[in-house]
# Entry
Amino acid sequence: MRAYEIHEFGIDKLKLVDLETPVAAPGQVLVKFHAASLNYRDVMVVSGTYNPRMKMPAIPLSDGAGEVVSVGEGVAKWQLGDRVMPLFAQQWYDGESSEEKRKTSLGAGPQWQGVLREFGTFDQESVVRIPAHLSYEQAATLPCAALTAWNALQVSGRVRAGETVLTLGTGGVSVFALQFAKMAGARVIATSGSDAKLAKLQELGADDTINYRTREDWDKAVLELTERRGVDHVIEVGGAGTLARSITSVRIAGHVAMIGALTGAAGFDPITVFMKAIKLQGIFVGSRAMMEDMLRAVVENKLIPVVDRIFGFDEAAKALTYMSSGAHFGKVVIKIGE
Ligand SMILES: NC(=O)c1ccc[n+]([C@@H]2O[C@H](COP(=O)([O-])OP(=O)(O)OC[C@H]3O[C@@H](n4cnc5c(N)ncnc54)[C@H](OP(=O)(O)O)[C@@H]3O)[C@@H](O)[C@H]2O)c1
# Structure
């Protein structure tokens, strides 16, 4: 089978290799991948900023979608032809995260090889069913970005109809957060550095939009839009460059879901955090139980993920470069196989 491996860091160093097609062991399924999606994490993994000490060779990417093409002994849960996605954290089934569960995340080292390959074997408990209304390309966007947004809003945030959610930028996590917030009946204020992307956010249902480049004090704009009360939830993906303004934007006793560090790791003012008695909650993707809850909502609401662009398998490096440019809106996908 064809696969991409990291032998040394750098997008241009990614190596297309020919590997033995794996065989399903007892309790495992063999998945033939049809699509994979990119997360910002993948750019970091491949360039060496995620874990500079990562062991190699390692197959990158955590999010894939495919079909079951063979099953190992004792597999009762799945049949040939079933459309499935591997979990981001292969052994986080329910409950809180832990060091052991977190370490089972795909695509960041040889122990849990990623999905940028034609076939992979997975424990029968570590894959979930793809909603029938979604293509492989659409489904491949769900395991990390969508689940993170779901965890932030529904699990950590317990978002309710009528609340206000602030999303930052138009990457994978933020666009899913907008979709889930609207699904829950919330009002959404969304930011972007591009007016063209703001127009797309409005098409997706954003109630108010702010260009954070032309309105550098976008936190003030958020307060103006909320009669100075602030928002109930912030989907904080920016880190150092955005956290202080996110904290200004949230209401007293509101919720900031700390998800990303697109602008670097943050130093911030703790005084505002306790004076406003806000909840700063770190989010790490999510469990299978959260994924199953999310998939029920996706099915019930016929949610369609926003796929910006689909690259061919031979264009993996091009896809990663495109992702790192930040030009995309929503998700970037790689098609696998014919
Ligand atoms: N904790 C977790 O479990 C978890 C899970 C998934 C992702 N993450 C993290 O969350 C972050 C987002 O991930 P992603 O995959 O959604 O990223 P992505 O798709 O690469 O997001 C890129 C977008 O972020 C926006 N952006 C960049 N700088 C910004 C700024 N200063 N202010 C506001 N928006 C800005 C830009 O949107 P515009 O072009 O519209 O301005 C850009 O297009 C990353 O740091 C990632 O590592 C964490």
